[in-house]
Request: fold
Amino acid sequence: MAAARARSGERRAEIVRAALEVIAERGYRGASLAAVAERVGLTQQGLLHHFPTKEALLVAVLEEHDQWDTGGGGGRDGWRLDLLEPLVEYNAMRPGIVQTFSALLGESVTEGHPAREFFTRRYTQVRAELAGVLRAEFGDRLPGGLTPEEAAPLVTAVLDGLQYQWLLDPDAVDMPAAFRGFLRLLGAR
Amino acid sequence: MAAARARSGERRAEIVRAALEVIAERGYRGASLAAVAERVGLTQQGLLHHFPTKEALLVAVLEEHDQWDTGGGGGRDGWRLDLLEPLVEYNAMRPGIVQTFSALLGESVTEGHPAREFFTRRYTQVRAELAGVLRAEFGDRLPGGLTPEEAAPLVTAVLDGLQYQWLLDPDAVDMPAAFRGFLRLLGAR
DNA sequence: ATTATCTATAGATCTATAGATAATGC
DNA sequence: ATTATCTATAGATCTATAGATAATGC
Reply:
C-alpha cells in the first residue's frame, strides 16, 4: 500500500489532533466520531480501535493539553507572573486551541459532562498556584487591599472571559492588550 | 378535560421556561425538543406547533432573557456601576439561569452556532455601555492609567469568568465577594 | 375557520458491537 | 499472535413533515 502503517502512538496522536479540531468546530457533544475519523482517513469503526469510546477520546484530548490556558508558558508547575502575558500573546495566535478549550469549558458546566471534573480540579489547582505566584510578587496585600487568594480567581476569570470576547469578535478585542491593562491594575509594571 | 386550554402566550412562556432548564442541563445542541416538550406535558410534535423549529425556540429563549447577565440590575439601558454588585449577588442565587447563559456562551464560539451573533452583538453593546458608566464614575483615567474603554472588557470578562469557576465549584468560589474585590481594584469603594 | 394537539413516519445521524481480512512481529 | 482496519448492523435518538381529531371563537 502507499502509506506505511503508522505506529500506534502516531496514529493516536493524529486522532487526538483531529478531535481537537472537530471539538473546536462543534463542541464535544456536537462532535461525531465519524467526523474525527474522516479527518484522519479512517472509518468511525477504525477510530474506535484506538479509543474504545468517545469519552476515552475526550480524556486523551484533555490529557494531551493538560498545560492548557494557564500552564503553557512556564512548564508544569513553576509559573511566573511575567510569563502570563506572553502566554496570552501566544494564545492570540492559535484561535483553534483556544476555541476548543472555551467550548469545552462552556459545555463542562452542564450536567454529567465528562470534562466537568477535569475543569473543576484544574481551576482549584490554578487558583492555588496563582495565589502563590501573586504572593511572591506582591506580598500579602495587592491594590485595593486584596489578598493573593482573592486576586487569583480574578486573574483566571479575566483570562477565560477575555477569550470568549475575543473568539466572538477578534477585531473588537485586543486580548493581549486588555490583559496587560489588567496586570497594570494589579500593580505590575 | 381537567386543565383549561392555556392561552397561546402562556403556553409559549411555559415552553421557553422549560427550554431554559433543559439547555442548562444539556446545552443547546444536547437539548432535545422531546425533553423540553415532556417538561410541559406535550409531545415533541405538539411543541413544534408553537415554535416551528428548534432554532426558533432558542431565539425565543435569548429574546426572553435579553437583559441577561449585565442588564438585570438597572433596566434596559441605564446601568450604574453600583448596581453590578447586587446583580452578581442576585445571580449567585439563581444558578440555573447562570448555567443556561454560560453553557450557551461556551457553545456560541463554535462554528455556525445560532446564538453566536446574539452574543457578539450583546458584548459589543455591553462593552460600550460599561465604558460609559466607568467614565461617568471615574473620569478618563482609572488605576493603572486604564481608560474606561480598556477597563470595560475586563469587567465583562471578570463577570463571565467568575461564573464558570463558581458553577464548577460553588463552595470554592464566593462569586459576589470576588467581584467586590475586583471593584476595589478599580478604585470603587 | 382557527388553534392546539396527537399519531404516524420519513430520513438522518450517532455510538458501539460483531466478526472478517490483511499485514506485522515473533 | 497481535494489530489495524473494514463491512455490516443493532438500537437509539433527533428534527421535521403530513395529516387526523377535537375544542374554541365567530
